[in-house]
Amino acid sequence: VISHEPPGYACPFCSLAAGRPIGVGRLTDLVARTGRALATIAPHWWPHNPGQVLVVPIDHHENLYDLPAPAGHAVHDLVRAVAVAMRAAYGCAGVTVRQNNEPAGNQTAWHLHVHVVPRHPGDGLYREVPRPSLADPEERRRYAGLLRARLSLPV
Ligand SMILES: [Zn+2]
């Protein structure tokens, strides 16, 4: 098993899924929950891509290498639903999906998460300068509401 998770890691996604968020996550960020997956507004946003979503398996899996197929399928199904809702609700011109594994792959939280990023012409996402910064919880709540209204899934 390939792992970079430190001993005793306090997982922000497991805590959010359990309804007791730690760190910068908020329950008001939640977008949708299915049997094995959860979608939440990301606490950090790239400067020209407000409202990005993270989709995670509800069970703790660190990376893609050891992700069981049922969890992976559930994550992908929810990624697709979020992308469709995002396109309609945000009025963005496109959607980018990406997922990072290990420090060399830019992974910084040790519970697999898929970024679903709203795209706009000339948004400079792949330049990534400046880096993502913490988004205001009230703005996050507003974007979560836009997606919840489209998805009509439990949170
Ligand atoms: Zn976790």
Helix count, DSSP H or I runs of 4 or more residues: 3
Largest beta sheet: strand ordering: 1-2-4-6-5
Structural class: alpha+beta
Q: Estimate percent helicity.
A: 25-40%
pLDDT < 50 stretches = none
- The total strand number stands at 7
Average pLDDT rating? 96
Distance, first to last CA: 31 Å
Overall body shape = globular
Counting copies of identical and different chains, the oligomeric state is: single chain
Bound molecules: zinc ion
Largest sheet: 5 strands, antiparallel
Computed over alpha carbons, the radius of gyration is: 15 Å
Strand content: 15-25%
Pattern of helices and strands: HEEEEHEEEH
Plain-language structure description:
The chain has three helices and seven strands. The protein is of the alpha+beta class and 155 residues long. The strands form two sheets. The chain has a five-stranded antiparallel β-sheet with strand order 1-2-4-6-5. Strands 3-7 form a two-stranded antiparallel ribbon. The longest helix is centred in the middle third of the chain and has 22 residues, at 69-90. Bound molecules: zinc ion.
Please render the helix and strand layout as text.
Layout: H1 12-17, E1 30-33, E2 37-41, E3 44-45, E4 53-57, H2 69-90, E5 94-98, E6 114-119, E7 133-134, H3 137-151
Antiparallel strand pairs: 1-2, 2-4, 3-7, 4-6, 5-6
Helix pairs in contact: 2-3
